[in-house]
Design goal:
Elements (H helix, E strand, L loop, with lengths): L6 H19 L7 H7 L2 E7 L1 E23 L5 E6 L6 E2 L4 E5 L2 H50 L5 H47 L2 E3 L4 E3 L9 E2 L7 E16 L3 H10 L3 E5 L6 E13 L4 E8 L11 E18 L4 E3 L2 E8 L4 E6 L1 E6 L7 E6 L6 E5 L10 E3 L17
Parallel strand pairs: 1-20
Antiparallel strand pairs: 1-19, 2-9, 2-13, 3-5, 3-8, 4-7, 5-6, 7-9, 9-12, 10-11, 10-13, 11-12, 13-18, 14-15, 15-16, 15-19, 17-18
Helix pairs in contact: 3-4
Length: 419
């Protein structure tokens, strides 16, 4: 493994060589200020590398979407009689919102009910006529049969026989007509009942209720306005509890998202500026990647009982893919960048010296209410002390003087020798 040296180290070496040359050429050796500074122990602060459970998160900007949106419209034409809620109210499913004037439909129902009574009376009369015709037919049928028999015996004349037969035929025709009247009356009654049911249904539509629970928007028609059937939206209701947040992640992360989401629904956090994060779960992975952006759309569901998320709002989103256990972490301020990559200054507590150590930084994490930390893949072990302040005066093998930790400084004042 190659060592990593800072440009300042090479300046220290050059200055040190120059000081040696000056000492060798001088009759009276004197301590060079640069050399003297290098021989002094550099004041530093240090922290221990620790093992910790570190979440693997994906951050994005999301957009809040209502889970459901309904434009409430009237299903009958008429005049708006009253509005039973206020703009911006939270409404419940089935709650009365608007009432259309029911009087025209009530009058139609009264007329249909009268027609129904009339048609029922006609049916009853037609059935009575049928009964009378059936009784009369029995007589005319018997008379016709006797007339034909008497005609054959020569007792009845041809005219008399034709008369009794015609009377029987007339009774048969009258019976058929009365039966047709019964069928007509029955059909009229069915039609009346159908019209009554339809009109009663329309009458029920004069009371417009909320189809879903949610938050009502602006009211577009006030009492007294005329409304047409299925025309202007009277109000729009948005379901905001629960609610969706949609966001995109790079297509390169799709396989990891699918892998961890298959194990358990991914935990998603969302928050607007100056708000605390709220937790939800991933509910939807789109079936295609956006070819223009290379992003895959995801959608998370939040209970949103406190209404901290609002439809149309842009929010910060953090998707937790997995919680990695026993990772080595150090404060990010301990990690330096040199020509050959990332490194830290590691302190030998026994000798009070420091050495440069190349490290592999996997990623940066920022826990809530804590400092930014670097997750170390290789190069450090738990418990090793890394320099967190004073790195600019260090060189490999240099002596250091450990200052008290920040938390132990009385009154927050700078400790002696602090940089």
């Amino acid at each position: 493994m190659s060592s990593v040296y800072s440009p300042l180290f090479f300046r220290y070496i050059a200055a040190f060589a120059a000081s040696l040359l000056l000492v060798s050429c001088s009759k009276k050796p004197q301590m060079n200020p640069m050399m003297a500074m290098m021989m002094q122990a550099a004041p530093v602060r240090a922290v221990a590398a620790t093992r910790s459970d570190v979440p693997l998160d994906v951050s994005a900007v999301g957009n809040v979407e209502a889970m459901a949106m309904v434009d409430v419209k009237s299903r009958v034409a008429g005049q708006v009689l009253r509005v039973a809620f206020h703009e911006g109210d939270n409404v419940s499913k089935g709650q009365l919102l608007f009432e259309i004037d029911p009087e025209p439909l009530q009058k139609q129902i009264a007329q249909i009910q009268a027609d129904l009574v009339k048609d029922a009376a006609l049916e009853q009369q037609a059935r009575a006529n049928v009964a009378k015709d059936e009784a009369q037919i029995k007589q005319t049928q018997a008379a016709a049969e006797r007339g034909l028999q008497l005609s054959q015996e020569g007792i009845f004349s041809k005219e008399q026989t034709e008369q009794v037969v015609a009377t029987n035929a007339s009774a048969q025709a009258s019976l058929a007509a009365d039966k047709a009247m019964v069928e007509s009356a029955v059909a009229s009654i069915k039609s009346d009942r159908a019209r009554l049911a339809q009109t009663e249904l329309q009458l029920s539509y004069t009371k417009i209720t909320a189809p879903i629970s949610g938050r009502a928007g602006a009211i577009n028609l006030k009492p007294g306005n005329l409304v047409k059937e299925n025309d202007t939206a009277l109000v729009t209701i948005l379901q905001i509890a629960p609610i969706y947040v949609s966001f995109g992640v790079p297509q390169q992360l799709l396989s990891e998202v699918q892998k961890y989401n298959a194990e358990h629904p991914l935990r998603i956090e969302a928050w607007a500026q100056d708000q605390k994060p709220v937790a939800g779960v991933l509910r939807f992975i789109d079936n295609s990647v956006d070819t223009t952006t290379g992003m895959i759309k995801l959608k998370a569901q939040f209970d949103n009982t406190g209404h901290s998320l609002w439809p149309g709002q842009f929010v910060n989103v953090r998707a937790r893919l997995v919680l990695e256990h026993n990772r080595i972490v150090v404060p990010s301020r301990t990690v330096q960048t040199g020509p050959q990559g990332k490194y830290v200054w590691v302190m030998d507590t026994a000798k009070q010296t420091v050495a440069m150590r190349p490290v592999d930084v996997l990623r940066i994490v920022k826990p809530a209410d804590s400092i930014e930390e670097s997750v170390i893949g290789s190069g450090l072990q738990a418990g090793e002390m890394v320099i967190s302040e004073g790195q600019m005066r260090l060189f490999p093998g240099g002596k250091v003087k450990l200052l008290e930790p920040e938390a132990n400084k009385p009154g927050g004042a700078a400790a002696p020798g602090a940089l």
